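Entry: DUF2568 domain-containing protein
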Amino acid sequence: MRLVNEGLAFLLELLALAALAYWGFATGDGIVWKFVLGIGAPVVAAVVWGLFAAPRASFGLPVVGVLAVKAVFFGAAVVALVVTGHPVLGALLGVVAVANVSYTTATRGKRSQELGDHPVA
């Protein structure tokens, strides 16, 4: 089950980046801004994710900090879908992301306690 959930987590991350790219290309005013936002938004989000929320993040945050980064990341993707006219997809992404992050956080904390390690979200 853990492997399936980790695969789903990766897919959700890719979908969130795609939603941000779609938003940028859809809302940018003029071709230059479309490319700046369409490429820039997902790149910035991916960098922040890699620094603070990835399993091997560069900066270790407490669980609450990691959850906050994930909330902003997925929240931005949900908002991006809603404002571009896809509220059902946004809601679906949000619900599945919350379920996935909740399950991952709960099971990693449990597994870490069993191994005597510190929990990582």
